[in-house]
Amino acid sequence: MENSPLCWYCLYTRSRHEDFVYQRLSDKKINVFLPKLEVWSRRKDRRKKIQKALFSGYLFVHENLTHHIWLEILKTPGVVKILGNETGPIPVPETQIESVKKILNGMAAVSPFPYLKEGQLVRVVDGPLKDCEGFLVKIKEGRERLIISIDLLKRSVAVEIEGASVEPVL
């Protein structure tokens, strides 16, 4: 773990502690990414737009996971664990993180989507989401959704896109 490269890792947090953990890790100068989505919240007497974590209970760090950094992350209040297996933390592919960032920075309608394993892997060839990769799911004639999946989380994000804007990944 001492000579690991700069990679994205997924952190699992206590319930509704994503913002708190994000702030604490930022204060420790750890590069952290918390994807958020603007949603309508229903209060007793009004509706209000709020920022909600896209992947509830998860956020990402981009670090060289040395033993020291690994311990600093785990000592942070609200962090439960770094996702991985018995051999240690598993990095999230850079392309998956970049695809989520492009979707959130784009102007397309974004919604959480159940994780998909089957379906055709495609790459966007033009527009603001160019070079994003994901699974294409046909919803209605002429309306498709691009599904960007974070495999380690078994979670995905859906964005509407024209079918002519994608090509198969070989």
Outline the structure in words.
The chain has about 170 residues and is an alpha+beta fold. The chain has 2 domains: about 5-90, NusG, N-terminal domain (Alpha-Beta Plaits), CATH 3.30.70.940; about 95-170, SH3 type barrels (Roll). It contains 3 helices and 15 strands. It has a 6-stranded antiparallel beta sheet. Strand 7 and strand 8 (about 90) form a beta hairpin.
Which key phrases capture this entry?
SH3 type barrels; five-stranded antiparallel beta sheet; about 170 residues; Alpha-Beta Plaits; alpha+beta; 15 strands
State Rg. 17 Å
Instruction: Tell me the helix content.
Output: 10-25%
CATH topology of the largest domain: Alpha-Beta Plaits
Which runs of at least 5 residues are low in confidence (pLDDT < 50)? Answer: none
> How many alpha or pi helices?
3
Average pLDDT reading: 83
Give the arrangement of secondary structure elements.
Layout: E1 6-13, H1 18-27, E2 32-33, E3 36-42, E4 47-53, E5 58-64, H2 67-75, E6 79-82, E7 84-85, E8 88-89, E9 91-92, H3 94-105, E10 110-113, E11 120-124, E12 133-140, E13 143-150, E14 155-161, E15 166-168
Antiparallel strand pairs: 1-5, 1-6, 1-9, 2-5, 3-4, 7-8, 10-14, 11-12, 11-15, 12-13, 13-14
Brief account:
It contains three helices and 15 strands. The chain has helices at residues 18-27, 67-75, 94-105, and strands at 6-13, 32-33, 36-42, 47-53, 58-64, 79-82, 84-85, 88-89, 91-92, 110-113, 120-124, 133-140, 143-150, 155-161, 166-168.
